[in-house]
Amino acid sequence: MLxxxxxxxxxxxxxxxxxxxxxxxxxxxDRPQLLASGLPAAFADPLDDTQxxxxxxxxxxxxxxxxxxxxxxxxxxxALHHRDVPAEYLAANLDxxxxxxxxxxxxxxxxxVMRHLQRALAHLEAAPLELPSLMSRSAPYGELAARFxxxxxxxxxxxxxxxxxxxxxxxxxxxxxxxxxxxxVQRETGRMWSMAEIVIADEHYGSGxxxxxxxxxxxxxxxxxxxxxxxxxxxxxxxxxxxxLRLVAQRLQFAGFAVHHLGANVPASELEWILRDRxxxxxxxxxxxxxxxxxxxxxxxxxxARTGGSRHVPILVGGPPFEVVPDLxxxxxxxxxxxxxxxxxxxxxxxxxARA
Length: 356
What we know:
The chain is built from 17 helices and five strands. The protein has 356 residues and is an alpha/beta fold.
């Protein structure tokens, strides 16, 4: 029998569009001024925006971890504020969702849903409107990171790559460039976009240069030994973000593992062939967004069904949601989680050693 919070999550996923329409109708009736100018072009229209918020609520309910919804609301608060969306919009949107659901859900389920919404509203009120810069010239390789980012923002991608090549020639290691340059630059451009300091075109251009940088570093990775443990890395179906996943795959190979990197957005159905035809000592799966978690659970369940008993393959998961909720890996059915590349290497070593 499903628990109330999992039953609620299922109901919300099944009828998210209808619930969103009911919530927007309430907003239009009670707070029409909040919808008068719509949402910025970079965001969905109010109906789609509300549906996505309900799906975030469903993931929060699935694992009974309100922090997941709180985290997404804090992000939206910053992004919408810096695009001149009325300050009352998010709270009013949550209130309208609550009102729409309260009249539709059975009492035990409704109580669980309202608890998550109330937690999100309280967190939203205290969440900051500004995100401080992640760049520091005094940090390790901070000057290089700042010059790399400046080159990217000025459209000088080749100059940014030359900076990286020179750093390698001067003795910088792949892990150092991962942790202190590329990760910092990628996170800073994400912060700048959320604060409306750059447009999405700038962020995409920067991601393209970071992609080139990762290929440059990939060419310098050592080849694994013939008897190295085999790790398959992939992004769960629907996860189109692959920077963190590629970086982790490179670090695992740098640490001596043989990595078969499948890339982003791999449906669970496509794993059968590799689990059947290749030696796999560990699966490393990335879920970048909270909205990917339900698919991640289904993927892990599918893998477990194919590799049970003596064929058990340990599963390492990673992505921002696992930093927000430290025990989330247990709730999705994985063996361990990592929130950075160093943790991923350490966890992979432990899991493979325990399997031997």
